[in-house]
Amino acid sequence: MKVYNYKDLSKSKIEELCSRQIEDDKLVEERVTDIIKTVKNDGDKALLNFAKAFDKVELEKLFLDAEELKSIASTIPADAKKAIETAYHNIKTFHQSQLKTEDKIETMPGVVCWRESRAIQKVGLYIPGGTAVLPSTFLMLATPAIIAGCKDIVVCSPPQSDGKTNCYLAYCAVLLGIEKIYLIGGAQAVAAMAFGTETVPQVYKIFGPGNRYVTTAKTMVQNKVAIDMPAGPSEVLVVADETANPSFVAADLLAQAEHGIDSQAILVSTSIEIIEETLLEIENQLAILPRKEIAAKAIENSYAVLVNDLSVAMEFSNEYAPEHLILATEKFEHLIPLIINAGSIFLGNLTPESAGDYASGTNHTLPTSGFAKAYSGVSIDSFLKKITFQHLSTNGLKNIGPTVEVLAAAEGLDAHKNAVTIRLR
Ligand SMILES: NC(=O)c1ccc[n+]([C@@H]2O[C@H](COP(=O)([O-])OP(=O)(O)OC[C@H]3O[C@@H](n4cnc5c(N)ncnc54)[C@H](O)[C@@H]3O)[C@@H](O)[C@H]2O)c1
Ligand SMILES: N[C@H](CO)Cc1c[nH]c[nH+]1
Ligand SMILES: [Zn+2]
C-alpha cells in the first residue's frame, strides 16, 4: 500500500487517486455488450451456454423451485440459521421504520396536493456468487422489496458447480417466502431480467451488487429497465486519528479487501504512527487470512494519505465518495456534519464495517466508484414510486385558475389555458 502526504498532492493527483478507472474497462464493456446481445437473441439457450462457460456447470434447468429450496435449506447448521434470523429481524426492523405516509398540503385555499407510494410491481434481485456467495445480500434486497409490497420478485444468483445453490441462500429463500431462485450469474442474469427469456420473467427494476460484469450490464440496460445504482466492487475509506486502534483499522481495511482484487481499502490519517502501525498490522493479519491472495492484491491497489487535520481528511473523503466510511476516532461527533458524500457510515472505534454488511439493520447495497456523490444506498424508497395527487375545490379552481391561464398564454399553449377557462365559465 502506497503512502502519500496530502500536502504534496496536486489537484490532478487527487483526482487520479479518487477515480476508480481500471485499465481493461473497455474490454469488460465489449464483453458485456456481447453477452447482453446474445441473451436478447437466444434467451434460455444463451443462459445455459454462459453457465457452462463462466460458472463451469451444465445446468439441466435454470431455476430451483420451492421444494428443492426447502430440501437444500434443511441442511443449514443451527448457528447459521439463528444468525440469518437475527440479521433478518434487524434489517426488517430498520427498513420498516422507513415506511412513511406524507401529509396532504393545501398550497393555496382549495388546492390540495399530496404524494402516495406504490410498490414497483416486478423487481429483479441479483445475489452475487462468484468469489463468495452472499446470502446477506439476499436479505438486504428481498426484505425491503417485501415490506414495500413488490408483487413479483425475481431472484438470480450464479449456480454452484453442482448446479444448485448453497444452504444459506436456500434458507433465506424459505425464510423470505421466495419460491424460486434462478441459477444465473453475471451480465447474463442482468440481461435476462431486463429483456426476459422463455424462463426468466422481465422486470421493471433491477437491484443488487456485483462484479464489474454485473455492474456494467446494469448501467447498459438502463434504456429498458430502471436500476438501483452502480453497486460494484466493495470499497472502504477509514479516517483515523491518534485515538484509532491500528489493529481494528487493519481488520476493517482487510474486510473489504477480501471481497475481490478490484476492491479498494483507503486509509486517511492525521498520524504517521497510526499509518505505519496499521500497515504492519495488515501484514500480520493477512498472513492468517484464507483469502490472503485476493486481499493482498486489493491492498496493493489501495493507498494511505497523511493529512494534517481531520477536516482535510473529510475533504478528501468527500472527494473520494466512498461506499463505506469509517470514522476511527473518538471525536467522530464533530465530523458528522462534514460528511457530504458516502454510502454508509461507521462511527467510532467499536463499530466494524462488517456489522453493517450483515446485521446492524442498515442496507449493505451501496453506491461505489464515486457514485455516492449522487446515489443513496438501497432502502424502502428504492422499491417504491411516489405518485403525486391534487384536488381543486370550486374555491381552489377560482384561486389558481388565473395563474394557470396567464402562464399557459405566456407559453402560447391555448388548449392548456382553455382547460381552466372552460371550468371557470
Ligand atoms: N457495492 C455493494 O453494495 C456490494 C455489496 C456486496 C458485494 N459487492 C461486490 O460484489 C462483487 C461480487 O463479485 P463476484 O465476482 O464475487 O460475484 P458476481 O456474482 O458479481 O459475479 C460472478 C459472475 O460473473 C461472471 N463472470 C466472471 N468472470 C467473467 C468473465 N471473464 N467474463 C464474463 N463474465 C464473467 C460470471 O457469470 C459469474 O457468474 C464483489 O466485487 C463485491 O465487492 C458490492
Ligand atoms: N461489503 C459488501 C458491500 O460492499 C457487503 C457484504 C456482504 N457480505 C460481506 N460483505
Ligand atoms: Zn463486506
TrEMBL record:
Its EC number is 1.1.1.23. Substrate binds at S234, Q256, H259, H324, D357, E411, H416. NAD(+) binds at Y126, Q188, N211. Zn(2+) binds at Q256, H259, D357, H416. Keywords: Amino-acid biosynthesis, Histidine biosynthesis, Metal-binding, NAD, Oxidoreductase, Zinc. Belongs to the histidinol dehydrogenase family. Binds 1 zinc ion per subunit. The lineage of its organism: Bacteria, Pseudomonadati, Bacteroidota, Sphingobacteriia, Sphingobacteriales. It comes from the Bacteria. InterPro entries: Ald_DH/histidinol_DH, Histidinol_DH_CS, Histidinol_DH_monofunct, Hstdl_DH. The keyword NAD applies. Catalyzes the sequential NAD-dependent oxidations of L-histidinol to L-histidinaldehyde and then to L-histidine. Pathway: Amino-acid biosynthesis; L-histidine biosynthesis; L-histidine from 5-phospho-alpha-D-ribose 1-diphosphate: step 9/9. It catalyses: L-histidinol + 2 NAD(+) + H2O = L-histidine + 2 NADH + 3 H(+). This is Histidinol dehydrogenase.
